[in-house]
Amino acid sequence: MQFKELFEIFYTKFRGEENPPDNTDPEWQIAVRNYNDALQRLSNYDDTKWEFLYQTNQNAGTGDMNTTISQTNYTCPDDMYEIGGIVKVGTVEYPVIQTYQAQVQNSTTKYAYLTGDNQTGFTLTLNPAPTSVETLDYTYYRTPVRLDATTENGTSIIEGGDPAFYYNSMLAQRFLDNRNFPAYQIAKKDAETALQGMRLKNNSGSYFSSWIMPDDGAGWGV
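^ that's the sequence the OP posted. Answer follows.
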């Protein structure tokens, strides 16, 4: 769903008008900001790992996608939040370890670790350094894509899950801004109900295949 479609649903419910305004209207920019607030709520909800926020390095579009001979450090995608348990250099697998564990590893042992954070960006270190140019791939958990209220034209695809969570969250904030507390309570409840439903579906996975990976002490990966 594009943002303009989400905005149309939101605005019709909020104002009860047939024709919503375009992206030059202040209501549009407020809606974009409230959508971003909903993403923040989504990100922090009960430490849930949303299936639609998993990504691979090869599909990221930013960061280093190939190795360089004798180079150990590689830039990670801009939207990385957390890396999985395995890094693949061509067909060779490097297990991901905690940064502090690197100091006790043998110099010939294959391993990878991260430095940095999700605010300033991550750097991936490989040991030993690759001896050839290979594809660099791994599964990682990304941050949701926030929209720019000043440049959003409506064509951006919103994040996954139930759109009802997003537009009800946007409605709740606008009702609160207008001190319409009864309407705020209804919209807020509807948003939380949609979010709970998203979490239930997210964690149930497919038949015989749960999305929640077991904690075996080795981290998660491909």
